[in-house]
Amino acid sequence: MKQKGKWIAGTTLCLLLVAFVTSVYLLQPVKDVPELSLQAIDGQTINLAGLKGVPTLVTFWATSCSTCMQEMPHLIDLYHELNADGFEIIAIAMAYDPPNRVVQLARDRSLPYPVILDIKGNAARAFGDISVTPTSILVGPDGKILKTLKGKIDFESLRQQIRQMQFA
User: Fold this and answer.
1) What is the pLDDT of residue 49?
2) Average pLDDT estimate for 111-127
3) 144 against 6, higher pLDDT
4) Which residue from 3, 10, 121, 137 lies 20 to 30 Å from 154 (Cα-Cα)?
C-alpha cells in the first residue's frame, strides 16, 4: 500500500513538473517579428525584419470592423505624435476585406502610415494566424514582439510604453 502511495505521489509530481515547464514554454510572449516583406498600397515594399531599431505597431484590421474604424483617428494621432521620434505603424487589412474598400478608405481618411493588403493571408499566418480584428502587435526596437493587443487599445498606456522605448 505504501509503495502505491509513493508511486502516485511521484507520478503526480512529475506530471505537475511537466505541465509547469510546458506552460512556461508555451506562454513565452517574446519572439522575433516574422521575416516578411509586404507590399503597401502605395507601392512601397516593407521588410518587417528591416524595422529593427524602430518601435512599430502592426495592426490587423478590416473595413467592416467598427472598433477598427473607431480606433483609426487615434492611430493617426499616435503616428503624427511619435513618428518623427522613430515610431512606425503598419496597418494590415485582413484577407477577407475587399481591396477596393481598403484602398478607398485609406485615401478617404488620409492614412499617413503604410497600409497592406494581405490578400492571401500570409501576414496573418506569419503572426500566428490572426483572425480577430482589431489585433495589434507592438514590436520593440530590437525586433522582438512585446505585446499582442486584441480588441480596443488603451492608447494612453500604449503611448507611454512606446515613449519608454524611444527614449530609453
Assistant:
1) 82
2) 96
3) 144
4) 121
Place of cell 500566428: 128
Peptide bond into 134 cis (omega under 30): yes
Name the residue type at position 156: E
Confidence category of residue 156, pLDDT binned at 50, 70, 90: very high
Three-state SS annotation for the chain: CHHHHHHHHHHHHHHHHHHHHHHHHHCCCCCECCCCEEEECCCCEEEHHHHCCCCEEEEEECCCCHHHHHHHHHHHHHHHHHHHHCCEEEEEECCCCCHHHHHHHHHHCCCCCCEEECCCCHHHHHCCCCCCCCEEEEECCCCEEEEEEECCCCHHHHHHHHHHHHCC
